[in-house]
Write a structure and sequence with these properties.
It is built from 4 helices and 12 strands. It is of the alpha+beta class. The strands form 3 sheets. The chain has a 7-stranded mixed sheet with strand order 5-4-8-7-6-11-12, with helices on one face. It is globular and about 40 Å long.
């Protein structure tokens, strides 16, 4: 549920379609760190954790990205995809500085295709709200967390425990 989302304690409006458990995961495109096109379809057949962050240049987003990068090393059957609206150049710099080698990090800066199709685009800010979406091997949404306060962490343990039930 994505109602009552706040940022800095102030209510925000999320644009786009709210994604729900049981939905077919919408196809979306984004931009890789090297400025090449990214297509969500390229991950078909894999279990996917989509880690949504406003900007890798903030501490909580940094920790969230590092946490899921570490988890990506533990199971070769799981793909971790981190998405923000940071420019690919900033994402590349961040990944190098933080040894992010296992998670895929992409940018939604051009069209907010992901943000609108999954309901994470913050009205008037052109940022994504924080959250987690888990998509199974058949591209069905199995878990969704729209973090209630953008400046707080998602429930890492809950999503990681949930992932174990899908394997």
């Amino acid at each position: 549920m994505r109602s009552n989302i706040t940022m800095g304690g102030k209510p925000i409006t999320l644009l786009g379609n709210e994604i729900k458990v049981g939905d077919q995961a919408p196809h979306f495109t984004a931009v890789n760190k090297d400025m090449t096109p990214f297509s969500f379809d390229s991950l078909d057949g894999k279990l996917k954790i989509i880690s949504v962050v406003p900007s890798v240049d903030t501490k909580i987003c940094e920790l969230q990205t590092i946490q899921f990068n570490e988890e990506a090393t533990k199971d070769p059957n799981i793909v971790v995809l981190t998405i923000s609206v940071d420019l690919p150049f900033a994402q590349q710099r961040f990944c190098v500085a933080n040894s992010i080698e296992n998670a895929i990090v992409v940018s939604d800066y051009q069209t907010l295709d992901f943000g609108m199709k999954y309901g994470f685009a913050i009205d008037k800010l052109r940022l994504l709200s924080r959250g987690i979406v888990v998509v199974d091997t058949n591209n069905v949404v199995r878990y969704v967390e729209y973090v209630k306060e953008v400046g707080t962490h998602p429930d890492y343990d809950k999503v990681l425990d949930f992932i174990k039930t899908l394997e």
